[in-house]
Amino acid sequence: MNISHNFFLYFKDNQPILFNYKEKKEYSPRKEYLRALVDYSNTEEDITEKENIVNDFINTDILTQNNNQDQPYLNYYAHMFHHITKDTSNAMADSTEEEWAGQYLEVCKRVKKVEFPRRGQIEDFEVVVTLPQADEVNIDLIDTLKKRKTIREFEETSVNIQQLSNLLFYSFGYVHGVEKEYGPFRRRTSPSGGSLQIIEPYVAIFNVEGVENGIYWYEPETHSLCKVNDHFSYQDLRECLAGQFFANDCSFGIFLAANLEILAWKYKTPRNYKVVYLEAGHFSQTSQIIAVTQSLQTWITGAFKESAIEKFCKMDGITKIPVFFTAYGKGKFSHMHTIMKKKLDEYRD
Questions:
Q1: Rounded to an integer, what distance in angstroms lies between the CA atom of residue 333 and that of residue 311?
Q2: Angle CA(236)–CA(241)–CA(247) in degrees, nearest 5?
Q3: Which residues belong to any copy of the Nitroreductase domain (predicted)?
Q4: What is the number of alpha carbons within 13 Å of residue 185 lying toward its C-beta?
Q5: Cα dihedral sign for 236, 240, 242, 244?
Q6: 164 and 287 in contact (C-beta within 8 Å)?
Q7: What is the per-residue DSSP string for 57-87?
Q8: Assign residue 281 a region: left if phi > 0, alpha if psi is -120 to 50, beta otherwise?
Q9: Domains identified in the chain and CATH numbers
Q10: Contact at 8 Å (CB) between 126 and 224?
C-alpha cells in the first residue's frame, strides 16, 4: 500500500487536519491515526493489525494500492494550488437558468447584509497631491498596440505631472463618473470582478516634475496622490524587485496591490485568489497602452520580494498584498540591458 500524494497535513486551532487537495475534503484524525500514519511513512511498518484504522485510510483514499503521484509541469506547490482552486465554482452548475439566477440573487442578498469594507480616504494621509485634470486622449488603438514594447534599460529623464495624471486617470481613475445602474460601485477602464475594484496602485516617484520623491497611494475618487513613504531610492526598488535592475532610472513605477478584504467581502472560495492576478494583468495591460499615448516606455515584472514592497508601501500583507509592478519612463528600445549584453558577449568569447 502507498500513502496517497493527494494529501497534506496542517494545523488549525491546535488541531491536525488532513486535507485532500484534489477532492477538497478535510479530515480531523485522532492521535492513534496520526501515529499509525507516521509509523508507516517512516518505516513502512506493518499496520494491518490495526484493521479499523487501515480500513478508514483505504476508504478515504489516504492509503492506495498504486503510487498516484502526478508528474506536474508546475512547481509542486503550484500544482497543489491549481487543484485546490479547480472546480470550486460548480455549486450551481446543474441548475436551470432560472434557478441559477435565483440562487445568485440569494447569494447577493446574503453578501449585502455584511457591511462593505472601508476603502482608504485622503483624510488618512498627511501629504496629498491633487493631480491636474486629465487631458482628453484620442488614440488609434491598433497603432498604439503595435507601439507597445517592453524595454529593459531606462534613461535618466523626467516626465511632467500631466503625463502622470493622464496615465493614472485613464488606467485607474473613475473615468465613467457615477453610474446609477452600478449603485455605490464605480467602473474603471479595466474589468473588475463584481466591480469591486480590488486593484490599488502605489506609485513610486523618482523623476516627475512637480511631485516629490516617495511612494504614494493613488486615490481615484479625488484623483490624488497620497504619500505613504517620504523616501524611496533605486536601491530600495532593487530590494523590492529581488535584485533586478531593469527599472533603474525609470521616472516612476507602480506597484499594483490587491485589496483582499474587499475581495473576500463577496467572493469566499479559494478560486478568488486566481482572479486577483487576472485582474492585475488587465490593469497592467491598460496602463501600458495608456503609457504609449503619453510617449512613455514600460517594463513589467511579477518577480519581486513581497515583504520588501509591503514594508515600503506600508501594506500589512494580509488585507492588502502586492501582485505586480510596472516601470515607466524613457529608454532604449533594446531587447537586452547593456549589462546583460556585456555578460552574454563575455560568455560567447
A1: 32
A2: 80
A3: 145-329
A4: 15
A5: negative
A6: no
A7: HHHTTSEESS------SS-HHHHHHHHHTTT
A8: alpha
A9: 2-84 (no CATH), 115-339 (3.40.109.10)
A10: no
Which H or E run includes 8? strand 7-12
Question: What is the C-alpha to C-alpha distance for residues 294 and 291, in angstroms, rounded to an integer?
Answer: 5
Q: Are 241 and 233 contacting, i.e. CB atoms less than 8 angstroms apart?
A: no
In angstroms and rounded to an integer, the radius of gyration of the C-alpha atoms of the chain is 25
Closest C-alpha to 286, from 230, 337, 330, 326: 326
Cβ neighbours around 20 below 10 Å, total: 18
CB 25 within 8 A of CB 80: no
Distance, in Å, from the CA atom of 121 to the CA atom of 118, rounded to the nearest integer, reads 9
Q: Where are the beta strands (DSSP E) in 124-219?
A: 128-130, 154-155, 159-160, 199-205, 208-209, 214-219
- Residues constituting the chain: 349
End-to-end CA distance of the chain: 55
At 272, the amino acid letter reads: N
CA distance 80 to 70: 10
Residue of 300, 324, 282 lying closest to 149 (CA atoms): 300
Per-residue model confidence as pLDDT tens digits over 65-115: 887 778 878 888 898 889 999 888 777 778 899 999 998 899 889 998 999
Amino acid identity, residue 166? N
Taking the complete model, does pTM exceed 0.85, yes or no?
yes
Q: What region does 317 belong to: left with phi over 0, alpha with psi -120 to 50, or beta? A: left
Distance from C-alpha of 336 to C-alpha of 344, rounded to nearest angstrom:
10
Which residue, among 105, 147, 263, 121, has the nearest Cα to 198 in the 3D structure?
263
Give the residue from 265, 241, 271, 264 showing the smallest Cα distance to 254: 241
According to DSSP, the residues that pair with 328 across neighbouring strands are: 252, 298
